[in-house]
Amino acid sequence: MVASAPDSGSARPADADGGIGDLAFHPVSRERRTWTSDLSVAEAAAVRRVGLVPAGFVMGTAVMQLAATGGQVFGQWGGLGGPSVGGGGGYSESYPCAHSYAIGGGIGFGGTAGGAAEHYGFNIEDAVLAASLTEGYRLAIGRLRDEATEVGAHGVVGVDLLFENLVGSTGTATFFARGTAVKHPGGAPLPSPFLTNASGQHFERLIALGYVPAGIAVGVGSVYVQPNCQSRGDFTVPGSNQQIPRAILVARARARDSLAAMAHRVGEGVVHTEWTDRRVNRYAESWDQLTVAVGTSVRRYSTEAPPLDPRPVLPLRP
After folding, report:
1. Whether this model's pTM surpasses 0.70
2. CB-based burial of residue 39 (10 Å sphere; 0-12 exposed, 13-18 middle, 19+ buried)?
């Protein structure tokens, strides 16, 4: 709506048609469109400073029944007896009973004969679950990009990736990607919109440094943990726990490696990496120790001017 005001500053009573004196409102003839976003005011200003404007809030969702290592783990469990388990190339490690005594017949703590271990445990990399999670993220990100293409966007900033068990039974996961699509007014469309999980201010700084986002990279690491007596929380075996920190360390290393591998396909580096550690319960006391790493793959588009060497300044006057 627009208004036309009278030349004089005197107030007049409302007219019968709804106008206030000579101040009459009438519809605007131009077409209007309201865009949405999840940008803060500061982010919106930063995006505008690099010549982009919001095109709309976009989303991508995927629901998957996750696949995970199952029977093959328990098939290997029966052959445990050394410091490591598993016959493949992935990580695996055994953790015998931590008590200094044994029950029944078999192997006790430290390999001493005299009794069966109270709770024998092991860690083994769950590459099946990691691949299943990666596929869920890939689908959600692809659908986010499709929505951005539909609104004519050149990219999406502030992408958030969420993974929750929101629907279905145990093992059914919901993957949700969301962000704000942005475009350059009058710019030619890109073959595929860029994606970044960086905020608007960080995106502005990235452009100023001579880099452009190439896409979202995701890395997932998963280690199946069958806890021994100490890791299951037995107060009779105090001391430093080795099994759980080792599972976390390996899961993080696998997530880092897969993040780098995905980013290498489209860019030359990764920035703004966000790490998430989570635990997914499995059978009885066992669980999968997960690490998810999300970052922005970037490429350089210009070369920064080399910084000037500092030079001493000496006064010429005493």
Report:
1. yes
2. buried
